[in-house]
Amino acid sequence: MMVTLGILTNGGDGPGTNQAVASLTKSSLEGSVADSVVGIRDGWAGIYNENVMLLDALTVREYANSSGTFLGTSRLNPFNVKGEDKSGQLVVKMRDLGIDVLAVIGGDGSLKAAYELYKTRGIPLVGIPQTIDNDVLGTDYSLGFSSAVDEIQRYVNTARNTSKSMNIIHIIKTMGRNAGHLALHGGIATGVGIILIPEFAFRAEDVVDLLRKRRESGYNYDIVLVAENAKIKDRLNNESRDIELILAEEIENRTKYKVRNDSIGFIQRGAPTNSYDNEMGVKFGNAAAELIKNSQVGYMVALRKGLVSAVPLKRVTGGIRTVNLREDYDVMRLTAKSAGLGSPVY
Ligand code: F6P
Q: What is the mean predicted confidence (pLDDT) over 25-38?
């Protein structure tokens, strides 16, 4: 029987994705896992629109090392297309397109939808975790995170040049929708004093106290990294202004320090693919082909305790992977816990 593999990338793009698509395509064709491979354009949307492209080794090598996703992506959810469940239509369209098995590359939303399609519609599929937020449950690593942290490092260290010249308290916002990994690891890598993450609601007074103590002990400037959804304790959550603006105002109201704020923004997601994400893209792509070969559908590839592994997709439905406050965050000093013996790596 001839087998056609369809590959799609859904949700926020990220470094390492194209490398995973390339490896999966090559190993599927070379290993006779599939007779043909098609790339589905713009995530799930491409199935409804029957927008696909044939992939082969020569096509994918053109894109393998670049960031973003050359297949395009969207935030469509087959179970909620403008309020309607269109998962049944997806099955029909897949049949029309002649796609026998799917590989879904994306973050927790995309992989949750993939699991539901597998469970309720019986679509044979495998998953590859990919999100700069690194918040997919069941895996210690999702593609794109390391390159995004590199970008945070570049940004913070560039900002440092001017902050230290002008004695500035510089509030810098990172991405990371519901998890603080980007801010935490970016902060460890750059040695910033204060890191604020969504997992722990902080008090503005505490930030100011810490900044004052640091100033008194000779730190003439400071950088505060704040994740986009970090929250100030006891402050209403209906505040529409961005957290870096609110925090800058809170500090200005309480001190005479010169305060500036910045948002790193989408350059984190579009960051150049570093060697770790290239390597993990290759390994995750090859592992996904192995899952298909072994008929291990309903699984995703994952990094578990330093090994590339297979994990049931059901795992992703348990929520998201957040920063472990007890192990990894110092709630008194509002920063990473001693990043030494026993600290987790990815
Ligand atoms: O999930 C990746 C991510 O970049 C988050 O860090 C961020 O909150 C979100 O996507 C932004 O999404 P959008 O591209 O839809 O604005």
A: 97
